[in-house]
Amino acid sequence: xxxxxxxxxxxxxLILIYAVYAGVFIYNTSFVIDGQRCYSLFDxxxxxxxxxxxxxxxxxxxxxxxxxxxxxxxNPLWVLFMTVFHLFPISPAKISLCIQISGALFLLVNLxxxxxxxxxxxxxxxxYAHAAVFLxxxxxxxxxxxxxxMEVSLLTLLISxxxxxxxxxxxxxxxxxxxxxxxxxGIWVRMDMAxxxxxxxxxxxxxxxxxRPRHIGWGLSLFALSILSQTLFRWWYYGDLLPNTYYLKMTxxxxxxxxxxxxxxxxxxxxxxxxxxxxxxFLSLFFRRNRATILLISLFIGQMLYxxxxxxxAWEYWGGSNRYITIVMPLFxxxxxxxxxxxxxxxxxxxxxxxxxxxxxxxxLSLLIILIAFLKMNTVFSPTPSLKELFLQKPVLAxxxxxxxxxxxxxxxxxxxxxxKIAVVWAGAIPYFSDRPCIDMLxxxxxxxxxxxxxxxxxxxxxxxxxxxxxxxxxxxxxGQLKPDVITQFYGVTAEEAEEYMGDxxxxxxxxxxxxxxxxxxxxxxxxxxxxxxxxxxx
Length: 539
What we know:
Elements: H1 3-28, E1 31-33, E2 36-38, H2 43-56, H3 76-86, H4 92-121, H5 126-137, H6 140-147, H7 152-172, H8 178-189, H9 194-207, H10 212-237, H11 244-250, H12 255-273, H13 275-287, H14 291-309, H15 323-326, H16 329-351, H17 356-378, H18 383-390, H19 399-415, E3 422-424, H20 429-434, E4 438-440, H21 447-450, H22 475-481, E5 486-487, H23 495-502, E6 506-511, E7 514-519, H24 533-537
Parallel strand pairs: 3-4, 3-5
Antiparallel strand pairs: 1-2, 5-7, 6-7
Helix pairs in contact: 1-4, 1-5, 2-3, 4-5, 4-7, 4-16, 5-16, 7-8, 8-9, 8-10, 9-10, 9-14, 12-14, 13-16, 14-16, 16-17
């Protein structure tokens, strides 16, 4: 078989293996409740699903039907994408599977783009192109975020597509407006895609002199249109200029403390994957300083800096790249392959040898580095547990919790009326599966809490103890004023402090293994099926 035929067969074998891997990965995120297999997304994605569900049912783009209009999501186009599936008669237990399969398809298409970008960057060298595809396909954080329903899958695809189109445009010296149209769509998927947009625009304005006027015009116009259209819609529909999540995460907390935490988790990420491996892609500039390499490095650094600016993510304890950095990790893997390819060419030239034996030795050395990088990249928080997750021997991040939250929502549906108000900390799966009006005690879907000052840690912990979206709560307001019928969870306070907030109005109940606080005398709770009403509500 010709060499290019062998390479093509190897690539499609990788695609097939990844497709099977993604299918098993998704299946491993499911669980059985009451004899039915259920699928659920990561809880933040389930918040978006709640909005999509309500929109599809005609209640509007809101978290609670008939509730206050609050934009508790940052991914409007992804919510609309989820809405489409809710227009069909798919059960709540299975509809998340549709989103997960979509994420897998987006990642599969992305692998084709990674191969194309790599081949263009490496002068058609298939070995290093396939190395980049392999590292991308089996990178645990990317699969975790994407296959658990986050918009990471689509954003990763859009960035790779833009890079591919840019490389073609620069090579052909032809202006391509699709670059800005796709980036504009990206901003609608998630507003902080404005960062890659501006990096790409500035790069093209500087590097593509022949089309500079069109880059300035198209770039600025579509950027302004994407931002302004969202802002006007938000102002008209929600009465706010920015998403509620912006006020929740980016206000009420000292900027320097947010930056210190962002820098700390960025350094943690670099150390986890090994400093030497992290620096290798950047060394490619010493061998081959071209515009494509500079573009990829700029996008990667831009996302790293953005992650530092926002203080990282709430789940940094798990390790690996967070959601902001993950979308450019395929570019990192391409750059790593580019450095290995350039280093091989440089060594072959210096050693003045083109013999098959010498080339094979250099390739074997590169293969060893690739395998070491693969293992280091995927030992995200501790070698044994994370490798078990990678090789599908144990559930990935939050799957066990997802099951508990889904079952909690289903049990609440049994024990309460449709009008019962449920206070939650996990604001995705419980509201979605309980189908009850809820109170978000961490403020993602509550305008009052989102605009309060955050709770600060004492001592040196304050420089690293920032968890975006999990720093604001006010139980005097959420419990004392809003008076939920059921309190499912508390966050950030001791059991004794929680008791003080509830006073004598609530009674602790253990139902089916779930410990809830029930408001005494609430007509929205019925316990007759388990004959517990007299036991827990009699004076």
